[in-house]
């Protein structure tokens, strides 16, 4: 299968790797590939593909949602909308919203604690938090989450890639494990997105919800169920305006101009986002499948970013994966941005949609613009 991607990197490396001398050691293999390509970035596939390479393996899964549930009918009482309008255009029926005084770090710690319990561990070597809604602009929220979990002293940092954030964080954490820098890492996607939504904005106000999901990664073998292989990531900064919060950063503050009240809230140009999201997720997913050596018809579950049911359907059609293999969770929680994929995984695990040995394809698109995808054979774990 030839990857559908604008970059020739994956297919070129796979071809070169297959031509390496059989008796060559890892140092000789590395020197050959560096000579061929001249970029360290190409070495990522070698590290995962080599027979003696270690991998990051999913060993725990947890999720947490704020207790407060907001229905479409409730939104219709203050916005010019209706339950039917929201359901037919987005597929969303309810969403969970944080209570006053409940920051993102609280959600993240709740999900992280459950993931660690699922994994049967009381400590990890590092914590990576993907979020668009940190507790404060400065400092990062991850150290606060680590403190809440009794992990004070462990490395902890935030990753900001909006709805692709969890896959970015997963890739970073997997790289730390593959390099030997860590044995166990807690990866969390958490959002209090309702805090950056204009309460009077009918367009965005019906889409988003709050929540957190997390996984624990451990060092293991690349052939184990749960092993994280190639994570295809990308970005396009020319699209930074289609999903954004304009105010509050150095761009707005350095300009010295008066701040518009609307600029403090999240904004999205949905009609522009749709084609970019479908195309980029499909391209990234195609590359991830190529590295996993799976055909689309071999995918048991497609877990796309839970933004909109129409986007998920378009993605499944473009990938030639039947809709019945889609994991859909947005009807209950809305778009939870960086928490979307781990929340969907936990939901699918609890309903039996995910099962040991299932071939699972993950794909996301978010602000930046950013996108990513990876393929994983599902392990025998329990979501908490």
Order of helices and strands: HHHEEHHEHEHEHEHEEEHEHEHHHEE
CATH classification, class level of the largest domain: Alpha Beta
**Strand order in the largest sheet:** 1-7-6-4-5
Helix/strand class: alpha/beta
Radius of gyration: 20 Å
Biggest sheet character: 5 strands, mixed
Outline, from the CA principal axes?
globular
CATH superfamily of the largest domain: Thiolase/Chalcone synthase
Residue share in β-strands: 15-25%
What's the count of strands?
A: 13
Describe the structure.
This protein has about 375 residues and is of the alpha/beta class. It has three domains: about 10-50; about 55-220, Peroxisomal Thiolase, Chain A, domain 1; about 230-375, Thiolase/Chalcone synthase (Peroxisomal Thiolase, Chain A, domain 1, 3-Layer(aba) Sandwich), CATH 3.40.47. It has 14 helices and 13 strands. It has a five-stranded mixed β-sheet, sandwiched between helices. A four-stranded mixed β-sheet has the order 8-13-12-11, sandwiched between helices. A hairpin with a 3-residue loop joins strand 12 (about 360-365) and strand 13. About 50% of the residues are buried. The model is unreliable at about 1-20 and about 30-50 (pLDDT under 50).
